[in-house]
Design goal:
Helices cover 46% and strands 21% of the residues. The chain is α/β, with parallel strands linked by helices. The strands form three sheets. Strands 2-1-3-4-5 form a five-stranded parallel sheet, sandwiched between helices.
Length: 228
């Protein structure tokens, strides 16, 4: 499998985290790390991940709680729990909180790679028959697995992204188009609109957050959206 994935390793044991990052990187993936929930939140705000490998025993928030909120925000995210908790009740709690796979430590990096490759094969098969997302500008609607209405600001943002070179646009340009002030308040308002648009794109069938934040620059549309 040639296409790389963006993977986040959330593990407070520094040596193990670096070992897993190195192993997955050798398989061609773009891998980042976080030592706790705060680090995870920072990474999720900056990047669009396909896979999160999550330890349960973290210093600031339990992995089960993290998995629940990740599953609520990113329904298509592939969550792998990798933990020393191996009791049946722990496994059940892991799956109920949103995990796709539960791997117990100690475990080889190859088992992790195998789990990721298995999921990617299923995902590729599903994408082969999955319809593209349609953006009906005049009616301000997204159409995919369901039909969702857009607000005026969301319509402007998505239209700009769809028409921008490389589907990428500077954040200040969007602020100006939305008739906001180019300051901290204007940027915060843009983030609110962007979060709502990302959620609606997920609702109509995008497999992951469709709009990627580019630090200190702007945003990029990373999923296929067809303007109608």
């Amino acid at each position: 499998m040639d296409a790389s994935l963006e993977i986040l390793i959330v593990e407070d044991h520094d040596n193990l985290r670096e070992m897993l990052k190195s192993h997955l990187s050798q398989h061609g993936h773009l891998v980042r790390g976080a030592a706790d929930a705060a680090g995870l939140d920072e990474q999720m705000a900056r990047h669009s991940f396909d896979v999160v490998v999550l330890d349960l025993n973290l210093p600031d928030e339990d992995g089960l709680s993290i998995a629940k909120r990740l599953r609520g925000i990113y329904p298509q995210l592939y969550i792998i729990m990798m933990t020393a908790r191996n009791a049946s009740a722990d496994r059940i709690a892991g799956y109920e909180s949103g995990a796709d796979v539960y791997i117990t430590k100690p475990s080889s990096g190859e088992e992790l790679v195998a789990a990721i490759n298995s999921w990617r094969r299923r995902k590729t098969s599903a994408q082969a028959v999955e319809p593209k997302i349609q953006f009906h500008v005049q009616s301000r609607e997204l159409v995919g697995t369901k039909r969702v209405s857009l607000g005026s600001a969301e319509t402007i943002i998505l239209q700009c992204l769809c028409l921008a070179p490389n589907l990428r646009i500077e954040y200040y340009r969007l602020i100006e188009l939305l008739d906001l002030e180019v300051d901290a308040k204007g940027k915060a308002t843009l983030e609110v609109h962007m979060a709502r648009l990302r959620k609606k794109l997920l609702q109509v069938g995008c497999l992951k957050p469709a709009i990627k934040a580019i630090r200190k620059e702007g945003y990029q549309l990373v999923e296929t959206v067809v303007i109608i």
